[in-house]
Description:
This protein has 27 helices and 55 strands. It is an alpha+beta fold. Pfam families: Hydant_A_C, Hydant_A_N, Hydantoinase_A, Hydantoinase_B.
Amino acid sequence: MFSFAIDRGGTFTDVWCKIPSGKVIVRKLLSEDPENYDDAPREAIRRILSEFSGTDVPKGSPIPTEQIQWIRMGTTVATNALLERKGERFALLVTKGFRDLLYIGNQSRPDIFDLSISMPEMLYERVIEVDERVLLAQPSSCRLDPQPGPLATGVTGESVHVSQPLNMESLRTELTSLLADGIRCVAVLFLHSYLYPEHELAAGRLAEELGFSQVSLSHRVMQMVRAVPRGHTACADAYLTPCIDKYIEGFASGFAGGLKNLKVLFMQSDGGLAPVNQFNGSRAILSGPAGGVVGYALTTHRQAGGAPVIGFDMGGTSTDVSRFDGQLEHVFETTTAGVAIQAPQLDINTVAAGGGSRLFFRSGLFVVGPESAGAHPGPVCYRKGGPLTVTDANLVLGRLLPDQFPKIFGPTADQALDAEGARQAMSALTDEINAFLSAETGQAAMSVEEAALGFVRVANESMCRPIRALTQAKGHNTAKHALACFGGAGGQHACAIARSLGMTRVFVHKYSGILSAFGLALADVVHEAQEPCALEYRQDNLASIEKRFQHLEGECLAKLTQQGFDKSCVRYERYLHLRYDGTDCAVMCRGSTEPNEDYLSVFVHRYRTEFGFTLDDRRVLIDDIRVRGVASSGADAEAAADSLAGGEVAVEVQQPEPVAHSRVYFEGVGWQTVGIYRLDRLSPGQCITGPAVVLEQNSTVLVEPDWTASLTKTADLLISRKSAEAAASVNETAVAESEVKVDSIQLSIFSHRFMSIAEQMGRVLQRTSISTNIKERLDFSCALFGPDGGLVANAPHIPVHLGAMQETVRYQMANCELLPGDVILANHPRAGGSHLPDLTVITPVFLPGSGQSPIFFVANRGHHADIGGRTPGSMPPDSHSILEEGAVFRSFHLVRGGQFREAEVTKELMAPAQLPGCSGTRNLHDNLSDLRAQVAANQKGVALVTALIEEYSLGVVQAYMKFIQANAETAVRDLLRRVGASALARTGASRLSFADSLDDGSDIRLSVDIDAKAGSAVFDFAGTSLESHGNLNAPRAVTMSALIYCLRCMVPYSIPLNQGCLAPIQLRLPEGSLLSPSDIAAVVGGNVLTSQRIVDVILGAFSACAASQGCMNNVTFGDDSVGYYETVAGGSGAGPSWHGRSGVHTHMTNTRITDVEILERRYPVIVDHFSLCPGTGGQGQFNGGDGILRVLRFRKDLTLSVLTERRVHAPYGLKGGQPGSRGSNSLEVAATGRRMNLGAKTSVSVGPGDRFVLRTPGGGGFGPLASKGTSDSGAGAHQPPLVLRGTLVDYEQMQFSA
């Protein structure tokens, strides 16, 4: 019998087949070749059957199935349809009042420096608001009278109120209208349906009765809390499942009798196989890459002796990185192409570096990607007019051999790779590089090979960063992993990447070119069952938990036995989704199938490993119960036998002879003549000493000097080196800083290394902190500073933190004695602080023998939920003095001589209680825990920079700190030259000016005098109003952050964020003004409101875009037992070529909003409405984005505080565009029916049934209305050039949106 495992990728279809004789056949076809075949997988099956079955199967004739045992497939059909937005038309049915819930999402923007806010479009074509509503019962806190509807019982046993029964007649009318318009698919999202699905079930039955072909109910697709990701997942299911069904129907049509007599299984995103009738859109996103993970997990892990393995799958446009350590690592929510998918999926992280990544030289920096040449036109060497790429660089260096490639390139697909064309393009870029080096740095000219190798080294470092993050984020040592290399491009980079990461072993599987297909042959058939739970994990609930496990196991068994599996072939994996009470960090914990399994110990161990501590005083809650039923067949074991026989190297035999020789360029030694070997001609035990090139059927492997390649008993390639040390030191002896000359390649690598230090500090802080703000919302920033206190690297997390910590570091240098073992705490505005809850922890670093001054600094700034003051949250809306806003630190020694000063810092945190009407910190335990975490994060930074110094020497590291600052300075000077020249040509002067007003009448005035020749500017805020009696005063650090943010937004490409950005800038702030207030001025509003107005003024002066909503819409409510704080999005400003985005956070904030189901579960509040306010964006050639309408109904007596702006002065339009609408805050009092305007800033008491109505401002329009334009971006008209995915990308977005 024939067994087929087929991975249909975007470019190639890979085929693994075991024929009746037991021999394995490997094939690779183009996925799209319409002139020769309709379907690549079916064509591969036809060709193999014709060749090996003894019976010819003519083209176009039905394929006989009698000799086919099974077909297993992975496919990118769903992924491609999602990325290209080519799914099925469908409508979204959603609870009334929430039509824009998925559009708003979590209200954050993906790229904080993209003024156009390009975001993918929504999947649905229409939205139908359905009159229904279910509310969670809150018997202990709800004081509504009467109660909001009759009680019912949810699936977890919790009570709910059916506030509004489903209006079936109205729904029938709406559904009939959809059918009339040709829409035959629907997704259904009703709030709290994960708990009470009756309304969704009724709507689904009605839709099916009316004839809808695809009905995706959110609670069936994924029965988990959080409406937004569950709704997106239901939409993906409705959008993609019909595409999959059409593909399967077309695939089946080519077989005699269709698929009814065939065992056909598809790979799901979780690494398990599913039958055709259970394969759906929401579980298919990672169908292709999942096979590769299963492939190396079941082969390399065993060959590596059980050591953890990093999967490295480098393709043409991107690289997939994953990890395996004995069991597949699943995540349950991640984002692909702007769609949050809530389903079990392997943790596969896609990074923007591949063979097709484009090469650039920008302002002295070597840059690789993220733009890609794609399959068409492809790299220069493909002969289709494509751009210069990593593949071209490898070709120039001799690492790719044109003679070993088929002649399939060029317009007629019959030419060889164009080595000469690649060299000419690289030569042209080298000339550009040398012209810059000659004019700007005096650096010696580079050869073409040196430039090509420089780009390869930069590409390698860009791929090392996510691998470090993937391992160290969860407390693992990167160097202790083996690297499993597969994919077409990975073999040329594997040794260099392993060396940089400290790894000593690289495995290249014999099927590395088709490993995803081979993984399909090894995979198990899986069925998952999951249900929500609301129990506490404790002894008296274990019987109930066991009962639910058995029920879910029965469900899995029923599904698997329907597929023909015997009960004895089925095993179960049990999971509990556990979290500490009051946190959002749930951990999926796997246990055995024993009834008395101790999941608590598993949870505590996992939590301590990942986060560095446990919360022994907190209850442990169960969010979900999950069972994974796994069925293995004899065919699977047989297919795997030849690969799992063992990975040890056989007894050494005669050394192999190369099939040819070629010249390859290596760092430090130049061109070397190396042997070329073919993997299929090597025998087990034979060794190859590098440098060498090994040719596999579908890839090229470079064995670098100091590495040795050997063939294992299973015919896989093991490449190893004896030394476990990292890359050799660039400077073995100390070099004085003044003697170091800038090297553009090293500059690019140091840019990655410095940023990696800041990122890894952030990982430690997130792991070891305890508060929701830092651990879960990631409201922090980490940074590295030079010996002069100048910023070197600041991971771009929180816009209002950008560049601000530099002021704090330099203040301490000038005003505080710094000794070894000291750590300083500061938050005062005069000491570089933004507002008091942002606590900055600074560690000076001393090196023995380097004198008495610090050689560099590391620091981090984290937002603490409370540090005392007048109101909970330390953000009083009506404060008049900084002393009312919480504890104040200028230069406090948090650690002295290595000792954490807990008693002293506790005293300072409680000090605000001495003031009338104020309290000390209301959460001392979290403050102290987070401060310790901040100290630990700095220690990680110290260790990483110290290691960098050991690798390169102090002089080199400090020199490159300055070089990287100079590079950012060059980019900003180029911007100012362009703007200055444009202003001179347009007006005859290079002065820009702008002014705007806050709602209290305070003016912010700016004039910018640009020296177009020097590329410098003076930003003068003369004329700005005096210090405010309220709290809208903005410390100098806030203005600095706003300035560096605006400059970065206006530079059209990515640049390092450091002190160099401000080097060409002279900032003048009038003393005693709103922007340079006195020591005791209240500042909380300055950080969250005035900062936005400063940005509007700067961008207005440069005519970059119209004003965005100019506000963060701060809303707080609570009492002595509960407190909640949120910021709410609005409209963004339009620009010269784009419409403003609606319902999104802009500029100096990017905070995520709490999901409505979580909010209503944890707090005594009901969200009655959350949608866009149509027409609130300013009109123009390009329209401003619309604001939001948000209505909160309170369930008990609480205190409500609002701190907002743009309630008096509307967001301005530019170039003839109209202003956006102003926002408003109003209160509807239930007891009296009274409705009142609350004004912009106030604190009021509210009672049960009272409703707070928030309307946020819209963005300004751009250009005259008569010249209506088509947006280049706005609400997602274009998709990004490369869609990244995985937990690393999600983590980065969380930091962008903290």
